[in-house]
Design brief:
Blueprint (H helix, E strand, L loop, with lengths): L6 H9 L15 H7 L3 H11 L15 H7 L3 H9 L14 H8 L2 H8 L15 H8 L2 H11 L15 H7 L3 H8 L14 H7 L3 H10 L15 H8 L2 H9 L14 H7 L3 H10 L14 H6 L6
Keywords: ANK repeat, Repeat
Protein name: Serine/threonine-protein phosphatase 6 regulatory ankyrin repeat subunit B-like protein
InterPro entries: Ankyrin_rpt, Ankyrin_rpt-contain_sf
């Protein structure tokens, strides 16, 4: 009855002794969860008033989700407003460590997120993967929210921006090609140096062919980042050659990328391109960048050996 929003039926059932705490067998959701999912605010209000128990507002389902989390995720503004009025816990976490704010930013419901921010919600709360709402805002391209979250976060003493794998919001913005978010982040000094995972934001931009994002980074940060290395010794040039992202390759070369830099296995960008049959990258590295054709990797292969294994001409 709550799922369908039949308020009179709900009231009649409660008067007959039905419990509002009853949970279904599969999702373990209560009538409160059911009414929230479809935005039945009148039904929700009735349940909350009849309950006369402050704990009911934060009851959790099998995934640890409260009615507030579901209201935010589904974008039901009136339900969010009512739950906040009833003092729902804005910082409650589900089994993945996500809060209502995480969910709101993931699903993009602007008014719901704004209502949460007005409640002094925790900005730097981390989910089970160590990701804060800032990571999700950067990954989803929500530059306005990111800017607002960042201003709040930077005023807090313990502002760690690394997730469990060492990725920062800048990594995520670059990986997903969100130029507006990159611009917002680069306004802050703490993001104008690469911290965290050695697979840097520049690597992230290059591997996904986001040339404009890479250009933003190279313009805003010291030019030495063009030769930064990941934990396998690979430079952004290796990433561009591996994926045959020709425009990115040319961008890096214009910024004086070391064409013959070798990774931990002794492979240069040319070797990586040759080994993967990337003709466009091979052509630029050989004919424009004058890459060394005689260098050998740890297995004593030259670029020519690797190209011949792919039936490529050099």
């Amino acid at each position: 009855a709550a799922f369908k929003g039949h308020t009179e039926c709900v009231e009649a059932l409660i008067n007959q002794g039905a419990s509002i705490f009853v949970k279904d067998n599969v999702t373990k959701r209560t009538p409160l969860h059911a009414s929230v999912i479809n935005g039945h605010t009148l039904c929700l209000r009735l349940l909350l008033e009849i309950a006369d128990n402050p704990e009911v507002v934060d009851v959790k389902d099998a995934k640890g989700q409260t009615p507030l989390m579901l209201a935010v995720a589904y974008g039901h503004i009136d339900a969010v407003s009512l739950l906040l009025e009833k003092e729902a816990n804005v910082d409650a976490v589900d089994i993945m460590g996500c809060t209502a704010l995480h969910r709101g930013i993931m699903t993009g419901h602007e008014e719901c997120v704004q209502m949460l921010l007005e409640q002094e919600v925790s900005i730097l709360c981390k989910d089970s993967r160590g990701r804060t709402p800032l990571h999700y805002a950067a990954a989803r391209g929500h530059a306005t929210w990111l800017s607002e979250l960042l201003q709040i976060a930077l005023s807090e003493e313990d502002c760690s921006f690394k997730d469990n794998q060492g990725y920062t919001p800048l990594h995520w913005a670059c990986y997903n090609g969100n130029e507006n978010c990159i611009e917002v982040l680069l306004e802050q000094k703490c993001f104008r140096e690469f911290i965290g995972n050695p697979f840097t934001p520049l690597h992230c931009a290059i591997i996904n062919d986001h040339e404009n994002c890479a250009s933003l980074l190279l313009g805003a940060i010291d030019s030495s980042i063009v030769n930064c290395r990941d934990d396998k010794g690979r430079t952004p040039l290796h990433a561009a050659a591996f994926a045959d992202h020709v425009e990115c390759l040319q961008l890096l070369l214009r910024h004086n990328a070391q064409v013959n830099a070798a990774d931990n296995s002794g492979k240069t960008a040319l070797m990586m391109a040759a080994e993967n049959g990337q003709a466009g990258a091979v052509d630029i590295l050989v004919n424009s960048a004058q890459a060394d054709l005689t260098v050998k990797d740890k297995d004593l292969n030259t670029p020519l050996h690797l190209a011949s294994s792919k039936s490529m001409k050099m």
